[in-house]
Specification:
By secondary structure, the protein is an alpha+beta fold. 52% of the residues lie in helices and 13% in strands. Helix 4 packs across helix 6, helix 9 (130-137) packs across helix 10 (141-148) and helix 14 (213-226) packs parallel to helix 19 (323-337). It is globular and about 85 Å long. The two termini are 47 Å apart.
Length: 603
């Protein structure tokens, strides 16, 4: 009986419903119903295939594939696909179950749920290589490769999506493969004669990002960090000196334009009065700041002046913003964060209310206060106060608000980042542009440092950092998991000396022997530690960026000089990164046997 077989297998493997659910993508309650006999799915069902995958993945994760193979009566070296078929056969006592057409067709349909899989299938059908596709769209073939491999999604560029859809569609017509393309996109035959309708449906199908939406925020944030200028010139390069403008002595401003006028006056007075700090909060929609280019330019200029005058800024971004809104807020402030003059917070103490509140305070100078309906900012009223008694009360209120908030972003630079962002014993998913420092053998690090031309003090600091990270990695693997997502270099790149080392202090690259020994050490770690997994990516999703998702926060390091690490604590931002890594895990997971074969080609 199916339920009894599942109970036996779970007991032998030491698996719980929740663990198999996480490894399979099924709901724990669904597994519980099958295990209790309340539900009896067919052996060819999608549910059972997922369950078999979950059982295999769990056994592979916890080094129990030999135990599983013994129960199934098969070789431990059996390929993953065949092992999963054996699991289903064993559960149903049916040796005739094979990877028949129904399973293959169903699996093919499942794999086309992501943009990358759809694009890959469409390009293969229309005989378009990455290079040819890139040339026709005037984009680099590496960008096409990232889209095709599911590492990136072009959602933030509607024009590019239109061009991609149009190119594939016109190519299918040119090759007389429109019927195959329509079938691939699931367009009913009744529409095939209407080419315009089919084009629209194909575009909807290809650009339906579905559950990938959450990861878009993570991708966009990483892009902005990676593409940052090396200083605060974003704010100060075109700034003019603050003019001795005399502002109208008004106590009330009306509407969005009034708020903009009040903010310009507020920031100008802060600079003129050599203020020590600004205390800022607003849960209004950000259109008042971003939608008027002339105002935004003045705002950037004045914020640059505040930074140059060493005015400390403490800002509470919002209490209830979702990941998308948080991203917009963080993105507009990233250049200021890099100055080291900003402390940013978020507060989740209060529930969402129908009113929005704006409070900008420069202690001892001025305060802008507004209180409006969330649904509209017109009409709205903003008070501009300079009375010292009022400012003292406002400062007390703001300090109370700060005490109920949590810091949103921490900024570190250079080696200091590596010392502070990791907590020993935490699980971590990490994406790196090259093989990671904590998995590097000691003799390889010594060889690299000897060739680096760095002074002895820096070498000692790097070695100490390596020891710290290695110990952290060992403790994390002992208590939880460490997952690394890294593009493995090609033989040509290795021989040409183009593979960078995971150090910000030197531009030294791997020798072939050093890279081989590092890979060998990764294989050894994967064999010895069941909680360590290595995911070999076909491309580098982001250039010169290192990302780590831990239990409570996310760190993103811009590796090009000056190296800066952003650590984000907001749960919505962390969840966006978790979704991005989940997408990578689902697409690039290899069982240990397959991964070992893949990596041993370097040895």
């Amino acid at each position: 009986m199916l339920s009894e077989k599942i109970k036996i297998l779970f007991n032998i493997l030491g698996a719980e419903n929740k663990e198999i659910a996480e490894a399979s993508g099924l709901d724990p309650s669904g597994i519980s119903r099958i295990r209790s006999g309340k539900r009896l799915p067919k052996s060819s069902s999608k549910t059972i295939r997922k369950l078999a995958s979950g059982i295999y993945n769990y056994a592979d994760d916890y080094h129990k594939t030999s135990v599983l193979a013994k129960v199934l009566g098969c070789s431990v070296d059996l390929p993953e696909k065949e092992m999963k078929i054996k699991i289903i056969s064993w559960l149903y006592d049916d040796s005739k179950i094979t990877s028949d057409d129904r399973v293959t067709a169903s699996k093919s349909k499942e794999t086309l749920s992501s943009f990358g899989a759809k694009l890959d299938a469409s390009m293969t059908l229309t005989d378009l290589s990455n290079a040819k596709f890139g040339n026709l769209l005037h984009i680099d073939k590496s960008v096409v490769s990232r889209f095709r491999n599911g590492l990136r999604i072009p959602k933030g560029n509607p024009r590019l999506i239109d061009e991609i859809c149009g190119l594939i569609y016109s190519r299918a017509l040119e090759l007389d493969k429109q019927a195959e393309l329509f079938a691939l996109a699931g367009i009913p035959k009744s529409f095939w004669k209407d080419k315009d309708e089919c084009m629209e449906r194909f575009k909807i199908w290809l650009s339906d990002f579905g559950t990938e939406d959450g990861s878009i925020i993570a991708e966009s944030l990483i892009d902005n960090i990676a593409g940052f200028p090396d200083n605060t010139t974003y704010f100060t390069s075109s700034r003019q000196p603050v003019e001795d403008t005399v502002f109208e002595d008004k106590s009330v401003y009306y509407g969005t334009d009034g708020l903009r006028q009040a903010v310009i006056r507020f920031l100008s007075e802060a600079v003129k009065n050599n203020a020590s700090e600004l205390l800022l909060y607003s849960d209004q929609r950000m259109g008042w700041m971003l939608n008027d280019k002339a105002f935004f330019s003045k705002w950037k200029s004045l914020m640059g002046a505040c930074i140059e005058n060493n005015i400390k800024i403490r800002i509470i971004h919002n209490v209830t913003r979702n990941a998308s809104e948080m991203y917009k807020a963080i993105n507009s402030w990233l250049p200021l964060y890099m100055s080291g003059m900003v402390e940013s917070y978020y507060c989740r103490t209060y529930q969402e209310r129908p009113f929005s509140h704006t409070a900008f305070l420069c202690p001892g100078v001025a305060c802008v206060n507004g209180f409006n309906l969330q649904s509209t900012e017109e009409p709205s009223i903003y008070r501009y106060d300079t009375d010292t008694a009022i400012l003292r009360v406002q400062e007390d209120v703001f300090e109370k608000f700060i005490s109920e908030s949590r810091q949103l972003v921490w900024i570190y630079s250079g080696i200091e980042a590596g010392k502070k962002i990791f907590s020993l014993g935490e699980s971590v998913s990490a994406l790196n542009f090259t093989l990671s420092l904590p998995t590097m053998p000691e003799h390889v690090l010594n060889s690299i440092l000897e060739r680096s031309m760095l002074d002895e003090k820096v070498k000692a600091e790097i070695f100490a950092q390596w020891e710290d990270l290695k110990n952290w990695c060992a403790k994390s693997m002992a208590s939880d998991f460490v997952h690394e997502y890294i593009k493995v270099a090609s033989e040509e790149e290795i021989l040409a000396g183009k593979v960078p080392v995971d150090l910000t202090e030197t531009s030294v690259t791997y020798t072939p022997d050093e890279y081989r020994d590092h890979i060998k050490n990764i294989i050894d770690i994967a064999e010895k530690h069941e909680n360590y997994r290595f995911f070999a990516l076909p491309d580098e999703p982001f250039s010169n960026v290192r990302i780590a998702v831990l239990e409570k926060y996310v760190s993103v390091t811009k590796m090009n000089e000056p190296a800066i690490t952003f650590v984000f604590y907001h749960p919505a931002i962390r969840d966006a990164f978790v979704k991005y890594f989940k997408k990578l895990k689902e697409r690039y997971r290899k069982d240990r046997t397959a991964l070992r074969r893949h990596l041993k080609r370097f040895l």
